[in-house]
Amino acid sequence: MASRLPITSPTLPLPTRNSFLPIRIRVRGGVRSSFTFPPLVGVSNAPSAAASAGGRSIGRRRRMVVTATSTEVPKSKRYPGEAKGFVEEMRFVAMKLHTRDQAKEGEKDPEAGSQPVARWEPTIEGYLRFLVDSKLVYDTLDAIVEEAAYPYYAEFRNTGLERSEQLAKDLQWFKEQGHTIPEPSSPGVSYAHYLKELSKKDPQAFICHFYNIYFAHTAGGRMIGKKVAETILNKKELEFYKWDGDLSQLLQNVRDKINQVANSWSREEKNHCLEETEKSFKYSGEILRLILS
Question: Which CATH number does the domain 122-292 belong to among 3.30.497.10, 1.20.910.10, 3.40.50.300, 2.120.10.30?
Answer without folding.
Answer: 1.20.910.10
